[in-house]
Amino acid sequence: MRFDQTWTAVGKDGFEFSASVPGTIQSDYAKARNWGDIQYADTVYRFDEIEDWDWTYRTKLDFSAEVGEQVFFVAEGIDYRFDILLNGAVIYSQEGMYTPVKLDLTDRAKAGDLLEVYLYPRPWREGALVGDHAARSAADESCKAPVTYGWDWNPRLVNLGIWQDAYILTCKPEHIHACEPFYTLNEDRTRAEVRFETECQGLVTYTVTDPDGMVIYEGTKPSFTVENPRLWWCNGQGEPALYRWTAKSASDEKSGNIGFRTVKLVRNVGADNVHGYPKSRYPAPITVELNGRRIFVKGSNFVNPEIFFGEITEARYEEQILLVKEANMNLLRVWGGAGVCKKSFYEICDREGILVWQEFMLACNNYIGTPHYLRILEQEATSILKSLRRYPSIAFWCGGNELFNAWSGMDEQSMALRLLNKLCYDLDPSRPFMMTAPLEGMAHGSYTFFSEGKDVFQRFNACRNTAYSEFGVPSISPVESLKRVIPEEERFPMRETDAWTAHHGYHAWVGDTWLCNEIYDGYFGKPESLEERVEQSNWLQSVGYQAIFEEARRQWPHCSMALNWCLNEPWITAGNNSLIAYPNLPKPAFYAVKNSLAGQVPSARVEKFLWKAGEMFAAEVWYLNDLPKTAEEELTISLTVNGETQELLRWSTGTVGENQNKLGPTVHVQLPDEALDPSLILTVTTASGKSNSYRLLFVGKKQTVRKAATMNV
User: Fold this and answer.
1) How far apart are CA 560 and CA 550, in angstroms?
2) Same domain membership, residue 432 and residue 301
3) Contacts of 535 (CB under 8 A, 6+ apart)
4) What share of the chain is helix, strand, coil (3-state, %, to 5)?
5) Do the beta carbons of residue 193 and residue 223 sit within 8 Å?
6) Are 318 and 352 in contact (CB under 8 A)?
7) pLDDT tens-digit profile of 186-199?
8) What is the DSSP letter of 363?
9) What residues have CB less than 8 Å from 154, skipping those under 6 apart?
């Protein structure tokens, strides 16, 4: 039986307060001290005062146990280095937030005893600058989520606390301590050999039901065969079929799901060896082959949906994953900088058919393989692998983010990556492993609408990469969100204040990113209101993401993946590349992306965003199809300029094959000599009701966009 406990905590100052479990200790302290809304202005900087504190959780044990029962203290995740004390004596010590604790207290503890969890101060490598809000190097010898040390969209707030469930468990000898299903599919996936590995002293009966609830196996043997299993497919490719299993002993029961599928990473079409001498490696294989079918991966990068990891809930995961599915996405990259999600995240992805690219907690650092770091990394990675390998949604593992570059300096010989490769092979050999992203052939960037003298149309139309695993176009947060965090007297005109800076409007990366006022001024001039500037940013983000996602799809099958940076955010940013504003507000760009990622959609390849009066406008017409079924459509292409709509041409696609795209005609039209309306709208519609529109900018002959600052991409 599970017994939840009531916890208090005390900080370095001796102040005792009520503590939430699961939770984050700094958040509980701030609430008890009435610090107010962490979102408001620069309140987040108050947490710098307590960053190097140690803390203690306390509870008077409240449980009952029958004669012969065992008693355990179970903590599914404690962040980060800690001692556990019983009546003042240390009985256990650990470093690492992803390795659960199951501590046998039988004959050692009774109701009313004092149990304490002492948290050491946050890990911080000696020599790192404590006052530097981008001190990522401070995390290069720990296995914490690096983002808590500060990023260009997440404030530096190094979490500590009992961030997952913790409780007293009483159980009889026949308790099932562990039960995990494994399976092997034959070559044509028509037969699955299933086996259970179970830790239990008594007899266990297994029951397995198919996705319709029909019992297909019941018995005490831990292995059996499933004929013609229904396969688990990702969103858009088929049913995410889940079989349900139950294991019962005389006194306990465990249950879970099985999703039968195979996943490979295979070489992209056209990604061959370099010809001639010297011979060199080909681009890294990054095409996902699911159940023998190559698919185009379309999705986003997922980050921690709250600053305080202990406050992330299943409900928050679910509402965001349902938006992912609504947006016609089929994969989320769980970015290594944000660490590993709670189990409910993967359960929901299983159910909704969302593939997961899971990274380990390494990002933008050189993780030097000291013996201590490697020992903790092995412990943590082992726990993660054993915990998550049962989820069919996890497509492949990755060592971490951007480790093979100038600012990280790691390579294939780095001990940490060699260790992770070994662990993945030993503990989950059927899943692919990649060292980092990006690898050869892949691309990260750009992250603004206009950089290095080009807009996103011009930049991405000229790219030929195998995967775009990060790219971004920012927008300013919704006006109502800004009203919550920016004092009224500072909101407009936008200017560099502590509030705007704290929320990553200024100096988050380069200059005024992520507000990007210089870019908006170049296209539109100075705004007359905050609302006008936010609308302009939404315009660019919507059409920018539309351009990039559709161009990546047009490059299939050489390109096999497009993942924008990013889906969500952990707090209200002034500006961000996210499609969902905190806490869960879809931006206008979300709906543009949703349309661009429809399984079958008409598309246009436009060469640029800004068009001048008198220019010859041109656009290629395409039909995109990444579904396992054919299509045939009648398309109408029209252009709205100066408020008047003109039909340009019609195109009959003929048969568009399964998982194929088709290029149609190119439209040409002379633009008027005057620009009376700044919106130039190209629309492609089908007879069946599908529609796709591109809102471009139309200006006078002499107007030019001001050159924006060059970004480091």
Assistant:
1) 12
2) yes
3) none
4) 20, 30, 45
5) yes
6) no
7) 999 999 999 999 99
8) B
9) 147, 148, 303, 304, 307, 570, 571
Q: Which of 118, 151, 171 is the last residue of a domain?
A: 171
CB 428 within 8 A of CB 389: yes
For position 355, which CATH number holds? 3.20.20.80
Please enumerate in sequence order all residues whose Cβ is within 8 A of that of 422, keeping only pairs 6 or more positions apart, or say none: none
Select from 631, 625, 641, 706 the least CA-distant residue to 676.
641
- State whether 9 and 156 are in the same domain: yes
Q: Is residue 266 included in any domain, yes or no?
A: no
Residue 131, pLDDT score: 52
Helix (H, G, I), strand (E, B) or coil at 252: coil
Residue 656 located in a structural domain: yes
Domain end, chosen from 119, 152, 171, is at: 171
Q: What is the pLDDT of residue 14?
A: 97
Rounded Cα–Cα distance for residues 73 and 103 (Å): 5
Using DSSP's 3-state secondary structure scheme, residue 288 falls into strand
Sheet hosting strand 114-119, strand order edge to edge: 16-19, 7-10, 55-60, 114-119, 81-86, 89-95
| Cβ count near 484 (within 10 Å) | 13
Residue with tokens 């990054």: 286
Decide if pLDDT at 708 tops 50.
no
Q: Supply the range of the domain harboring residue 129.
A: 2-171
Residue 82 belongs to some domain of the structure: yes
Of 100-104, 296-300, 699-703, minimum mean pLDDT range: 699-703
Rg, the chain, Cα only: 27
407 vs 397, which has greater pLDDT?
A: 397
- Say if residue 165 is in the same domain as residue 28: yes
In order of 227, 333, 649, 652, the CA distances from 668 in angstroms are 57, 39, 10, 18
Whether 303 and 566 have beta carbons less than 8 Å apart is answered as: yes
Count: domains in the chain: 3
- Could you tell me if 592 and 691 are in contact, meaning their C-beta atoms sit under 8 angstroms apart? no
Instruction: Give the β-pairing of 101-104 and 70-75.
Output: antiparallel
Give the pLDDT confidence of 118-144 residue by residue, as tens digits.
999 999 887 766 555 446 788 899 999
The CATH number given to whatever domain includes residue 636 is 2.60.40.1930
- Rounded to 5 degrees, what are φ and ψ at 258? -125, 130
Cα angle for residues 608, 612, 615 (degrees, 5° grid): 85
Q: Is 182 helix (H, G, I), strand (E, B) or coil?
A: strand
Residues in CB range of 533: below 8 A, 6 or more apart: 476, 492, 494, 517, 520, 527
Residue 126, pLDDT score:
74
Closest CA to 506 of 42, 38, 137: 42
pLDDT, one tens digit per residue, over 15-28 is 999 999 999 999 99
Distance of CA 529 to the CA centre of its chain: 33
Q: Is residue 46 part of a domain?
A: yes
Cβ–Cβ contacts within 10 Å for residue 421, how many?
A: 16
